[in-house]
């Protein structure tokens, strides 16, 4: 088979992880998204370790925001391109919306802290942030399951 005959077919040796990028680029995109999720997780847990220290809220809102921004950046970078089926591209864009929920949670953290003042409790400040984080996590879990299912269907 010549190069012209094989140009419309996929390379059988190339593995697609189901995400926008393949190979080395896709691996680093997933590492960045995972690291962003770890930053989000750590910043949500840390203020509850010492509930009386409200200074932790001021520090960890920046950690949460940086993690959310890293997650969104990785998802945007991984979702660009025309590789994969239209359904797979839609599922990759769905992961981006999980990041948007994390960013809205970060915005609420900043807003609530400024709006409620320094004497508000941790739960009062982080209520909406926790809600949007759970929504983003749910979107991420569902899209990951659907991507894995779709990539198995496309490999058969």
What does this molecule look like?
The structure is a single chain. This protein is mainly α. The chain has one domain. 78% of the residues lie in helices and 0% in strands. It is built from five helices and no strands. Helix 3 runs antiparallel to helix 4 and helix 4 (86-116) packs antiparallel against helix 5 (122-155). It is elongated, with a radius of gyration of 19 Å. The two termini are 23 Å apart.
Name the helix and strand elements from N-terminus to C-terminus, one letter apiece.
Answer: HHHHH
Mean pLDDT across residues: 81
Distance between the termini: 23 Å
Number of separate strands: 0
| Rg over C-alpha atoms, rounded to the nearest angstrom | 19 Å
In DSSP terms (H or I, runs of 4 or more residues), the helix count works out at: 5
Instruction: Specify the overall morphology.
Output: elongated
Strand content bin: under 5%
Provide the domain count. 1
Largest sheet: none
How helix-rich are the residues, as a percent range?
over 70%
> Structural class of the helix and strand makeup?
mainly alpha
Please mark out the parts with pLDDT under 50 across 5 or more consecutive residues, or reply none: 1-21
Please name the defining characteristics of this protein.
single chain, 156 residues, mainly alpha, 5 helices, 78% helix, disordered N terminus
How would you briefly describe this protein structure?
The chain has 156 residues and is mostly helical. The chain has helices at residues 3-6, 23-49, 55-79, 86-116, 122-155.
